[in-house]
Structures are given as C-alpha cells and as structure tokens.
Write a structure and sequence with these properties.
Two copies of one chain form a homodimer. The first copy, chain A, is mainly α. The first copy, chain A, contains six helices and three strands, in the order ααβααββαα. Chain A is globular and about 55 Å long.
C-alpha cells in the first residue's frame, strides 16, 4: 500500500525542509542574506548592492524577511532619518547552514552548455 | 553605481547555489534522494514509497535526475527484467550537504498557523 501523503483534512503535511527550500528559492532572499552577512546595511546600500531590484520590490521583500524573522529593521531618528537592516540570529544561522550546500553547488553544478552550433 | 547584474549578452550570470536550490525545489527530487539514501530501489518500490506520484511523472523525474547524474539506472536482465535506481556519488554528496539546512529547517521553520476564527 502506498504511504499516505495527505493529512486527514486533505492537506500535504508540513515539511520544514521543503519550507526552507521554498524560502531560499524566492528571488533576492539569498542575495540579501549574503549582503547582510557583511554587517548592518541601510536600505540604499542594499538597493545599490542588488543592482537590478526596484525600491518597491526590495521594500516588500525585506518586509517579508522581517516577518519571517530573518532580518530586523531599525529606524535611526537622525535628521534625515534612515532605515537600516541587519540579520537576526535566525538569518545568520541560515547563512551558515547553507555552507555545505554552497560547496556542493560549486563543486557539482556547471552552467548549462550553450546549444551546439549546426555548422557541421 | 549599481553593480552589473547581467553578463554582456544580457543573461544573468550562472550561480551554482541558486541552481542547486532550483534543482532541490523541484517536486519529488528531495523525496527521491531521501528514499535512495536507503539503498538501491526498484522502480515499483520508489513508486510505492512516494504514494501520490503517477508512473509517468516518476519515470520522467528519474530520467531528469539521471541526466543530472544524481541517480544511476540499471536494467537487471532477469525474466521478467526490472529497473533499479541508486544514488551516484554526486547524489549522495547532495544529501549530506543538505544536513545542516535540514537541521535549520527543523529548528526554525514552523507550520503556518491556521487562520484565526472569527467567532469572537
């Protein structure tokens, strides 16, 4: 008999490993974690570091990561005020937990080869 | 100035870590790797272990994983013949590289709380 794949209410059971992969697979998340491993960063610094991202997307992404307790946000009340972001212990632990997987990727994953020319 | 995000031909540069996450994020891949860590498995055994997957999807998924050199496929020429799968060194290394990230997930990722009732 097949192993049951669903809980009683028909939903797939929660898998923390899949949830982690889903979280890491979202655009900008990984880059933001990598940037913030370098220390506290202002919004504008993150924006510059990420190049292509627009401010609205970045703000939204950071808000989600704040909700997930990966980053913490702090408003510095200077004039003019600024907003800065840093990794929480949870965010730092995630970066460290990625270490072996990053090594694996660099060891084993190669860029897809360009399609072979048809000149022959 | 923003850091360049694109290569000269306009494509995003290849990132082995993202490629790894993409690979792991595909449905069934992680479960198949986990099943095959238990040793060589016949197609039917994998099919049973995974419950909900249909044979065509499973065959296709295993073919992709074979192409990615994560699993190896062997036809055993008994009568009737059968097909069995095992992890390659690359596949086993991937499972081991997932270890810290799995721990992180189990430590930090919680199931989403059900939506609050509106009875109050």
């Amino acid at each position: 008999m097949a192993r049951p794949k669903k809980t009683e209410d028909g939903a797939a059971p929660f898998c923390p490993v899949k949830a982690t992969l889903y979280l890491l697979g979202r655009k900008w998340t990984l880059l933001l974690i990598m940037e913030l491993m370098g220390g506290v960063k202002r919004f504008n610094e993150l924006s510059h570091a990420l190049g292509g991202v627009n401010s609205r997307t970045l703000r939204e992404r950071l808000r989600i990561m704040e909700k997930e307790q990966l980053v913490s946000r702090r408003v510095v009340s200077h004039i003019p005020p600024w907003v800065e972001y840093s990794l929480t212990p949870k965010g730092r632990a995630l970066f460290k937990a990625m270490d072996d997987l990053s090594h694996w990727g660099r060891r084993w994953m190669k860029p897809p080869r360009p399609a072979a020319g048809k000149s022959r």
